[in-house]
Amino acid sequence: ADLVLLGKQSIDSDCGQTGPLLAGFLNAPQATFAAKIERDDDGAFTVERETDAGTETIKLNPTNNPQQPAIITCDLRLNTPRYPTMPNIMKAKKKPVQTISLEDMVTELGLELDDVCHPRNEVVEVYEPPPRKEGETVESADALLGKLKEKGLIA
Length: 155
Fold this sequence. Notes:
By secondary structure, the chain is an alpha/beta fold. The chain has 5 helices and 5 strands, in the order βαββββαααα.
């Protein structure tokens, strides 16, 4: 496989660890929080991701090793969901659902049941970040520049 897509967060305590952990286990290239993915002619993936500082573009070069696919975790902006029509909902009700037991899935993945049932991470503390300082309103661009210079943020 060339690519493994995962959600941004999962049942890993909402910590976003699953994608990076899989990439680490496979020694594979990774990108997280993808908002846009394109496949280049050379087989590389160009990933656009949104960060606190803005948009970042990352290129994941192909490894030519099927054991090292690109690992990409997806942000909600990557896809526009399609809503099922009523006829398709009715058809889906009639389709069989295959149930796979946890034991069978664990065996197929070559893991031990204890490894899956006992988490390896522990939440030590959860707290709210400190409140932000109140902002200021300025009347013009010149006033904004003056405030920024006053605070030493621009020269």
